[in-house]
Amino acid sequence: ADLILEVQLLSADDAPELELMPPSERISLANRKRERGNVHYQRADYAFAINSYGIALQITEATFR
To answer: What InterPro entries does the entry give (predicted)?
Structure first.
């Protein structure tokens, strides 16, 4: 038997503008992305882990420019 799943996107938010965020919020966001990367890594979802770590790194680099 086939299973059909329909998904409806109810809302979407733009990425936060890092330049407008206080450094403490940027660091907190980067840490959440790093932690998400750790979860993906533990599940052997390496592509998702790399993506999450990359986003965390971009946020961190924007914080210390």
So the answer is: FKBP4/5/8-like (IPR050754), TPR-like_helical_dom_sf (IPR011990)
- In single-letter form, the type of residue at position 4 comes to I
Q: What is the pLDDT of residues 1-59, one digit of tens each?
A: 999 999 999 999 988 888 888 999 999 999 999 999 999 999 999 999 999 999 999 99
pTM of the model: 0.74
Distance between CA 25 and CA 48 in Å, rounded?
23
Rounded distance, CA 32 to CA 6, Å? 29
Residues 64 and 28 sit within 8 Å (Cβ to Cβ): no
A 10 A CB-CB count for 33 gives 20
